[in-house]
């Protein structure tokens, strides 16, 4: 029994990092839908600022455009407001950054030739393939700062993984808090560099077509298997069972 637990622990120890690493890789097949051919929709609005409270902080959200996007997630970062820049800014409202592609980038480009990565407030991508780079359209990718104080919307955004086809709606908006923090938003898909991200106060969010979760499930099962087999082995040694 003791040997079996050791083998199980070692197997889970190997499977856990493998599943974790693979879980944020693009799936072999991207879930295509005609909605991905539609450019993000935005319409100018005239409405007063919203006063939003979350995490013990009061925010002023200034809607500029009604906004909706359908796209495929190529990288993401869920934020923890207790660390790094978000702690410095006292920004609890920014749930996550999602780097999303649509149109020809989602349909015709070999996305597997690219490496996509989200920093704390940036999306970076690179490829060694000249052909892949030439086929890529910089106006069909965006990094989205998603804001919400709604627990259900925050949970839905937090459940995203790479390869998901998503739909969200809300407002392109500027926002600020009493600490002196202020962040604006891009209002065009053709800009690049600092300030090119879309800041959206989200009113609806849906994972329309989830990517396969097999690797993520394997990682979770392996972690539990490692913890349980290790604890059982230690208990068995302590009790003299083997």
Characterize the main sheet.
5 strands, mixed, barrel
- What's the arrangement of strands in the largest beta sheet? 3-4-7-10-8
Secondary-structure element series = HEEEHEHEEHEHEEEH
The helix tally amounts to 6
> Radius of gyration in whole Å, from Cα?
21 Å
The global form is globular
Mean pLDDT: 87
What is the helical fraction, as a range of percent?
25-40%
Alpha-carbon distance between the termini? 7 Å
Fraction of residues in β-strands? 25-35%
Q: How many distinct domains?
A: 2
User: Which blocks of ≥5 consecutive residues have pLDDT under 50?
Assistant: none
User: From the structure provided, what is the oligomeric state, counting identical versus distinct chains?
Assistant: single chain
SSE arrangement:
Elements: H1 2-23, E1 41-44, E2 50-54, E3 57-78, H2 84-89, E4 94-101, H3 103-107, E5 114-118, E6 123-127, H4 130-135, E7 141-147, H5 151-158, E8 165-177, E9 182-183, E10 198-209, H6 214-239
Parallel strand pairs: 7-10
Antiparallel strand pairs: 1-3, 2-3, 3-4, 3-8, 4-7, 5-6, 8-9, 8-10
Helix pairs in contact: 1-6
Could you provide a short overview of the structure?
With 242 residues, the protein is an alpha+beta fold. The chain is built from six helices and ten strands.
């Amino acid at each position: 029994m003791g040997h079996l637990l050791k083998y199980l622990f070692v197997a889970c120890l190997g499977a856990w990092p493998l599943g974790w690493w693979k879980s944020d890789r693009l799936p072999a097949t991207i879930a295509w839908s005609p909605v991905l051919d539609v450019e993000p929709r935005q319409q100018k609005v005239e409405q007063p600022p919203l006063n939003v409270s979350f995490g013990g902080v009061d925010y002023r959200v200034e809607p500029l455009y009604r906004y909706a996007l359908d796209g495929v997630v190529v990288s993401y970062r869920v934020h923890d407001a207790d660390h790094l820049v978000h702690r410095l800014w006292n920004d609890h409202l920014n749930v996550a950054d999602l780097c999303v592609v649509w149109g020809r980038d989602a349909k015709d480009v070999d996305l597997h030739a690219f490496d996509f990565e989200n920093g704390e407030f940036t999306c970076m991508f690179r490829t060694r393939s000249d052909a892949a780079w030439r086929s890529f359209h910089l106006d069909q990718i965006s990094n989205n700062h998603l804001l919400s104080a709604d627990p259900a919307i925050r949970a839905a955004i937090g459940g995203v993984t790479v390869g998901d086809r998503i739909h969200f709606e809300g407002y392109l908006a500027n926002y600020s808090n009493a600490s002196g923090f202020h962040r604006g938003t891009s209002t065009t898909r053709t800009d690049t560099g600092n300030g090119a991200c879309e800041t959206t106060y989200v009113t609806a969010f849906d994972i329309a077509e989830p990517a396969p979760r097999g690797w993520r499930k394997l990682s979770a099962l392996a972690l539990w298997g490692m913890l349980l087999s290790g604890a059982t082995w230690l208990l068995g040694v302590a009790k003299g069972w083997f």
